[in-house]
Amino acid sequence: RGEPALHIKYGVPIAVNAGDGLYALCYGALRENERLLGVERAWRIFEELAELSVVLVEGQAMDLEFKDRREMSESEVIETLRKKTAKLFAVSAKCGAIAGSASNEVAEELGSAWEDIGIAFQIRDDILNVIGEEGKYGKSIGGDIAEGKPTLLLINCLEQCELDEKENIYKCLHNYDKQKIEEVVNLFRKYGSIDYSEEIAMRYLREGTDKIREIEGKEELKERMVALAEYFVEREK
Questions:
Q1: Which of 74, 145, 159, 198 is the most buried (most CB within 10 A)?
Q2: Domains, the chain, ranges and CATH?
Q3: pLDDT at position 157, please?
Q4: CA nearest 145: which of 173, 183, 179?
């Protein structure tokens, strides 16, 4: 974050090839799990990651579809966030539980909790993209607007604003104009989209941390997970 992406520094072909190489390295790590964890747990982790790969592609497809469609419901936005970001949190938690010999029930409960936290994390990240300090945030402020990403902020605002305001927002998508982006952010404020998104993020955070506290296990470890989750969602960068 805050540094040029690989495809910017070295070009798309090298970046794509490097990504393929990382996949190969992942398979090597998964193979090593068989020695470290045994066949059963290693295979369960492999299954989780294989399923995750499909879900991530589905989430990216939903994201890309919005660029042509320009219409998306709030539930569709949340589902996109779930598939693009939250499932990464969920599967990471589940794989950690599996590696630590937790029961299937605990692994599923942790996955469910961290999926909620992952949604909260992404909503918070989208909020920071429009109100954060560029020096702290590490990315261009308003970049999500310029890229035409379907965020909860954007969809909530589009559902409320006047037709002429909606047309002005559409003109800003895929066009990084700092002044125009500021106008869109002001519309977010006008229609309460920032505050609304904060409320939704905190709701998912509470649901996730409540689930963590309900899981059978050591209280100290659960509170450490809760503290980590709160940091993810309350961060400024």
A1: 145
A2: 1-37 (no CATH), 39-234 (1.10.600.10)
A3: 96
A4: 173
